[in-house]
Design a protein that fits this description.
- Helices cover 27% and strands 37% of the residues.
- By secondary structure, the chain is of the alpha+beta class.
- It has a six-stranded antiparallel beta barrel with strand order 3-10-13-12-11-14. A four-stranded antiparallel sheet has the order 2-15-19-18, with no helix packed on it. Strands 7-6-4-9 form a four-stranded antiparallel sheet.
- Helix 1 (2-19) packs antiparallel against helix 2 and helix 3 (103-139) packs antiparallel against helix 4.
- The longest helix is centred in the N-terminal third of the chain and has 37 residues, at 103-139.
- The two termini are 29 Å apart.
Length: 373
């Protein structure tokens, strides 16, 4: 700005020398004095005070909707997949069948286990009767103790076989039950990896289930906006091209700011009321601060451009400069647009309305709007 002022002075001197000359080349001191007087006369300026706006700051973000919780469902038995009973997007309830795995084979194993159990029970029944007969003979001293001991051991062995067969039958029943893969909770089928005829291994992901009747809506918030979140209970959002507004209840605010993005995540939840909002969709989120803030606004013509924005003020009938920090722009308040003053200016401090053609130290005369004197 000092350089600009010096150029103005040099140009003014050259102009004065030119204007002060007669047509015959001789200088006219009186004419030169009049030109200098007019050039150094104070310039008329109009002052304006910043407009104070009371508002709840808003921040518009692009986020996404996601499932409240997801679980990958796998098989607990191995075998060929007989049936896939659901498709992506289907809503299921807890316990609903999703996939059937080799049901006939597990049914045969159960039948075999039941047959073995019955055979073991028959052997135990026979061993029980034999033990009773041997006990009667032993009391009459008709048989030796060793013979009775053998009968007693055979009975114990038969009882153990019944217990083993019973456990085998229970395992076969469990495998048959688990050959039907069921939904662990209410939810929506998010992904399906299984097809009929595929071999299912234990812990192999076959279905992805979005659990629950709620979704999460999340977005990353710049760190400078954190003070505005105090007392936040929820936020509004839209999805796609729809103008319908949904409301999410605040679920969590990430406590750590990412060092890479200098942002943190805000997450809300919403009960699924219709199929217009689905996990994976983009969400246009509006955060509204619960705390009311005041902001100062000046006309855009009052801001001088330099390395840092400056405003011009009047002190001792001369222009002085002050650096300010600017923020948002708006079309309210002033015809040529308004700029928010974040710092560097207090309310009720007047500034020059239009700084075009002005510089530091120039003498000025403050006029009111419409004053032509």
């Amino acid at each position: 700005m000092k350089r600009n002022t010096s150029l103005i002075i040099v140009s003014l001197s050259a102009l004065l020398s030119l204007l002060a000359c007669h047509p015959n080349g001789e200088q006219d001191p009186e004419n030169a004095a009049n030109v200098i007087k007019e050039a150094l006369a104070p310039q008329d300026v109009e002052l304006v005070e910043p407009v104070i706006r009371s508002e709840h700051p808003e921040l518009h973000l692009v986020g996404s909707a996601r499932a409240f919780e997801t679980v990958n469902i796998s098989s607990e038995v191995v075998g060929n997949i007989d049936k896939v009973l659901v498709e992506v997007g289907n809503t299921v309830n807890e316990g609903d069948p999703l996939i059937e795995v080799d049901r006939e084979t597990f049914r045969l194993w159960l039948n075999q286990a039941n047959a073995n159990l019955e055979a073991s029970k028959a052997e135990l029944n026979l061993a029980t009767k034999e033990l009773e007969r041997k006990r009667d003979l032993l009391s009459d001293k008709t048989i030796a103790q060793a013979t009775f001991d053998q009968a007693e051991a055979a009975h114990a062995l038969a009882a153990a076989r019944v217990g083993s067969a019973n456990a085998t039958r229970d395992l076969a029943q469990r495998d048959l039950d688990r050959s039907i893969i069921r939904a662990p909770s209410d939810g929506t089928i998010a992904k399906r990896y299984a097809v009929k005829g595929q071999w299912a291994d234990i812990n192999q992901s076959l279905i992805e289930l979005a659990m629950g009747s709620q979704i999460k809506v999340a977005a990353r918030v710049p760190e400078f906006w954190m003070p505005n979140l105090s007392g936040l209970k929820g936020f509004d959002f839209t999805v796609g091209t729809s103008e319908k507004t949904y409301h999410a209840t605040l679920y969590s605010i990430e406590p750590v700011v990412s060092q890479n993005s200098r942002s943190f995540e805000v997450v809300g939840t919403m009960k699924i009321s219709d199929q217009a909002v689905r996990p994976g969709m983009f969400a246009n989120i509006t955060l509204t601060s619960p705390t009311q803030h005041t902001s100062l606004w000046l006309p855009s013509t009052a801001i001088a451009s330099s390395d840092m924005p400056e405003i011009m003020m009047v002190a001792d009938d001369k222009i002085v400069l002050r650096k300010v920090q600017t923020g948002r722009r708006d079309t309210d308040f002033f015809p040529d647009g308004a700029i928010e003053i974040v710092s560097g200016l207090e309310a009720e401090e007047p500034v020059i309305r239009d700084v075009s053609g002005l510089g530091r130290g120039i003498p000025v005369r403050v006029i009111t709007s419409g004053d032509n004197t």
